[in-house]
Specification:
The protein is of the alpha/beta class. The chain contains 14 helices and 26 strands. Helix 6 crosses helix 12 and helix 9 crosses helix 14. It is globular, with a radius of gyration of 25 Å.
């Protein structure tokens, strides 16, 4: 066994034989961000190591010579040595999470109803027989919780089942990110029994804390909670329910979940009423989970009278289209660029992240989360930066970043064109650059989503001009400017005025199913009408993807 000390805090951690520094920190609950799951790819698990002898170097494109000289290393590439002092240097600010969206509807008939009188209370779920309530008091009211299980974030809201009113909402990071930020890393970790137990218990414990916080905020006894509805992609649902996710990682990519049904909530140990039930909404496909189906329900997709496009932009971007009597859905592996991951100075939407970039006629201007000094750039800032620099001619349609001597525009902007480790980069703020490699990551991400959009339009036999509305779902969509998405080519041209930023539609959809029991059977029928379009076998997808790699030529600089 090897022991080392953590700063700040002075905590001592013991590493097991053969264990990496990152693995030891992970067991201690202190592991820094590692979107790749500690496999040495992302360069996110940076720590500063001090000891009697310098730690071995851990070369990576995200580490500069200055980083190495100051003791910065990648925790996943080191085996700890006795007596080391390991300084955690990653961002520690709270993440800016979009909680419940603005899609509250009128209450219908709640699924869970309390009947009887003092000493003889019972709860009736749907049309089932009443179940005696062992824990209930006069004056209590039936409550429900809506749970959004995101790959990166968790959101819980507390709803009064009688009035349909949202009483409180809380959010936090998904602790499973220690195993990696993408679903593939989670599938690999959860395919082992011990890994599945750990992932299941971690996310349930985090949800338990959020539920308890919502109850405190609203002055509600936890035993008033009689029901929960959970939205999430199929991988997150497998892990939270303790179901082996391995089939999701191999052909023919099938899920093993029973959805569109209720089960006891007791195994989750959320500290709520022992009689509480959990409803898992129907999923559409192994890659299209209940977060998407309830989001489609909440935003009126199934009731749309005109062609409509639904986009949930993330690492696994989901796209849905209703047109010509067909309801099509697919998913595209966009990668983590729009979540700030895999980017040279990328970070989540935490304090100090550049979330907006514009042009004031003289120079670039940036807006950060919290308004303080820039510490990095998140997904919305990344999309903005690329769009603005395209308009200003700093980035050409192929995605190439111009060098200073090639650029003939504003002097202030020309001064921002630098070489970082010998390659072109744009200086956005002190210590924060947009690199050529970053632009390539944006191209790959937007090309995957745009190609998916174009494929669905082609299958439906309609053009983008026929769309009545484009719904952008999720926290990322809330902070994106539609003009930027059109400028980089993620959206077909001419749709800016039709874009609706819907916020957290997964959360809103789960709340809708708490408010009205009738919505559940209707959603189940509606999901059966969805046709999944597999992009891998879709004719022309590869050609569309390659064509979408280029940036459009057009437009004018924005004012931020």
């Amino acid at each position: 066994m090897t022991t080392f000390r953590i700063e700040p805090g002075g905590r001592t951690v013991t590493a097991r034989p053969g264990e990496t520094l990152w693995q030891a920190l992970q067991r201690a609950g202190l592991a820094p961000d590692a979107p790749c799951g500690g496999n040495g790819v992302c360069g996110g698990c940076r720590v500063r190591v001090r000891g009697s002898r310098p730690a071995p170097p851990t070369p990576h494109r995200n580490l500069t010579p200055a980083d190495g000289a100051s003791g910065i290393r990648l925790a996943c590439r080191l085996v700890p040595q006795e007596g080391w002092v390991v300084e955690l240097v990653g961002p520690d600010a709270a993440v800016k999470i979009v909680e419940a969206g603005g899609w509250e509807g009128p209450p219908g008939e709640p699924w869970a109803r309390v009947e009887g009188a003092s000493g003889a209370w019972a709860v009736r779920f749907g049309r089932a027989r009443p179940v005696p309530l062992r824990v209930w008091h006069e004056g209590w009211r039936p409550r429900g919780v809506a749970i959004d299980l995101g790959t990166t974030t968790l959101v819980v809201s507390l709803v009064d089942l009688g009035s349909g009113r949202r009483l409180a909402s809380r959010s936090g990071l998904n602790p499973q990110t220690r195993f990696g930020h993408d679903v593939v890393s989670r599938i690999l970790a959860g395919s082992r029994p011990e890994g599945l137990r750990t992932l299941r218990d971690q996310v349930r414990a985090a949800v338990r804390g959020l539920v308890a916080g919502c109850c405190r905020d609203a002055g509600v006894a936890p035993d008033e909670v009689l029901e929960a509805v959970v939205g999430g992609n199929t991988t997150m649902l497998h892990l939270a329910l303790g179901k082996d996710p391995a089939p999701l990682g191999r052909f023919p990519f099938r899920h093993g979940l029973r959805t569109g049904c209720t089960r006891s909530l007791r195994p989750w140990r959320l500290g709520v009423n022992p009689a509480a039930r959990l409803y898992v909404p129907p999923v559409a496909h192994a890659f299209v989970g209940s977060d998407v189906t309830v989001g489609l329900w909440a935003t009126g997709f199934f009731r749309a009278e005109r062609p409509e496009l639904f986009l949930d932009v993330g690492t696994n971007g989901e796209v849905a289209l209703t047109a010509g009597g067909r309801r099509l859905v697919t998913s595209a592996a966009a990668g983590p660029a729009f979540e700030g991951m895999g980017i040279r100075f990328g970070m989540r939407a935490a304090a100090g992240a550049i979330e907006g970039v514009g042009w004031n006629g003289r120079d670039l201007v940036v807006r950060t989360v919290g308004g303080g000094p820039a510490r990095g750039i998140c997904g919305s800032g990344l999309a903005d930066a690329v769009a603005v620099l395209l308009d200003l001619g700093v980035i050409d349609p192929t995605g190439r970043v111009l060098r200073r001597e090639e650029f003939g525009g504003a002097a202030a902007l020309r001064e921002r064109l630098r070489l970082l480790e010998g390659k072109p980069a744009v200086h956005l703020a002190k210590g924060v650059y947009l690199t050529q490699a970053d632009v390539r990551q944006v191209q790959l991400a937007k090309a995957a989503i745009r190609a998916a959009v174009d494929c669905l339009l082609d299958v439906a036999g309609v053009g983008p001009e026929a769309l009545g509305r484009v719904v952008l779902a999720g926290g990322f969509g809330r902070h994106l400017r539609p003009e930027g998405l059109e400028r980089i080519g993620l959206l077909p041209p001419g749709l800016v005025s039709r874009v609706v930023s819907a916020g957290n539609t997964s959360q809103a959809g789960c709340e809708a199913l708490l408010r009205d029991a009738r919505a559940r059977s209707r959603l189940k029928r509606a999901v059966r009408s969805l046709e999944h379009v597999g992009l891998a076998g879709s004719p022309g997808f590869q050609d569309r993807f390659l064509a979408a790699m280029r940036f459009p030529t057009m437009s004018k600089p924005w004012i931020l």
